[in-house]
């Protein structure tokens, strides 16, 4: 069996070489739901990633899936220019992010599409029948619906599970408002057989129910706490308390941290927000001070190195 590796857009790297990781972010992103707020500027992406790298950042996991303006042909350029590893995603988001015609074209062969992007290369123009580039995906992105799993979510998760079984790739789940975490785990792991430590639950800290992170952690999945620079979110104010409770319950090894930048204005470079640098200039020192350097090292280095490693 091959040794585990993390599949980046510049090739596979040993987990020990991933380094300090932003485990959930977007360098490029476009959707009809976000009209006028696209992340589509390669220079801005490089500037933001460089600002992260200057503080010790070494890797960013881009959760932008197929068909959402991920700029597959530019990701390698950004990685080289910024000096950071970039892990790209295949998969699909909620149905509302796509033209119905595109969903109809790919609907019957989602698993094959995901496997092709994981093993051969990303479709450079987000066309399922178009050419693929040398950059390959390293994870499969799926999404729940608000407070549950609709038919689209179940169809995409079923295809993602098949693609996981054919490749070993991790499955990253967008939880709308932090809801439906247990539904997603029940389907992916209980019904479809994806190992629980191959699932990453995103936005789990955004649920208004403070019991949800602990319930999600008890499933054995990884938990991605993302968007910590959004100071107007109540979940951000209680982030350290939530992490402290998880650490106290023995879940240190499941915690991941990311920025989840979805608008240009949220970036540190050219925007108004603290962006990616916030993870290392503010959050990591706070985590070290409140919970200890070992917890911070686990969340930023050791855990992502395990979560995204696959014996390709």
Automatic annotation (TrEMBL):
Extract the SUPFAM superfamilies matched here: Metallo-dependent hydrolases (SSF51556)
Q: How the cofactor binds, per note?
A: Binds 2 divalent metal cations per subunit.
Q: Which GO terms describe its molecular function?
A: hydrolase activity; zinc ion binding
Q: Where does Zn(2+) 1 bind?
A: 24, 26, 141, 260
Q: What cofactor does this protein call for?
A: a divalent metal cation
Q: What species is given as this protein's source?
A: Streptomyces marincola
Q: Which residues bind Zn(2+) 2?
A: 141, 174, 203
Describe the family membership recorded for this protein in Swiss-Prot or TrEMBL: Belongs to the metallo-dependent hydrolases superfamily. Phosphotriesterase family.
Name the UniProt key words of this record, in alphabetical order. Hydrolase, Metal-binding
Q: What is this protein called?
A: Phosphotriesterase
Q: Which Pfam families match?
A: PTE (PF02126)
Q: What is the lineage of its organism?
A: Bacteria, Bacillati, Actinomycetota, Actinomycetes, Kitasatosporales
**Which residues are recorded with the post-translational modification N6-carboxylysine?**
141
């Amino acid at each position: 069996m091959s040794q585990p590796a993390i599949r980046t857009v510049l090739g596979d790297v040993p987990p020990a070489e991933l380094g300090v990781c932003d485990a959930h972010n977007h360098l490029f992103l476009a959707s009809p739901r976000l009209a006028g707020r696209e992340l589509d500027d390669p220079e801005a992406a490089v500037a933001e990633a460089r600002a992260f790298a200057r503080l010790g950042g070494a890797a960013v996991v881009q959760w932008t899936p197929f068909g959402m303006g991920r700029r597959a042909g530019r990701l390698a350029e950004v990685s080289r220019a910024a000096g950071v590893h970039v892990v790209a995603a295949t998969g699909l988001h909620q149905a509302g992010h796509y033209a119905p015609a595109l969903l109809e074209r790919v609907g019957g062969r989602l698993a094959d599409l995901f496997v092709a992007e994981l093993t051969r290369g990303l479709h450079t123009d987000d066309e399922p029948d178009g050419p693929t580039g040398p950059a390959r995906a390293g994870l499969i992105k799926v999404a729940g619906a608000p407070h549950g799993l609709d038919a689209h979510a179940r169809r995409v998760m079923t295809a993602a599970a098949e693609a996981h079984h054919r490749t070993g790739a991790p499955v990253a789940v967008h939880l709308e408002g932090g809801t439906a975490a247990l539904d997603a785990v029940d389907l992916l792991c209980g019904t479809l057989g994806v190992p629980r430590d191959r699932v990453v639950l995103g936005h789990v800290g955004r649920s208004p129910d403070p019991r949800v992170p602990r319930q999600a952690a008890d499933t054995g999945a990884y938990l991605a706490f993302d968007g910590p620079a959004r100071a107007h979110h109540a979940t951000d104010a209680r982030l350290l308390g939530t992490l402290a409770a998880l650490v106290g319950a023995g879940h240190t090894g499941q915690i991941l941290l990311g920025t989840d930048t979805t608008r240009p204005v949220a970036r540190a470079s050219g925007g108004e927000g603290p962006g990616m640098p916030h993870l290392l200039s503010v959050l990591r020192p706070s985590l070290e001070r409140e919970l200890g350097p070992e917890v911070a090292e686990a969340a930023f280095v050791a855990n992502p190195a395990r979560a995204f490693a696959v014996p390709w």
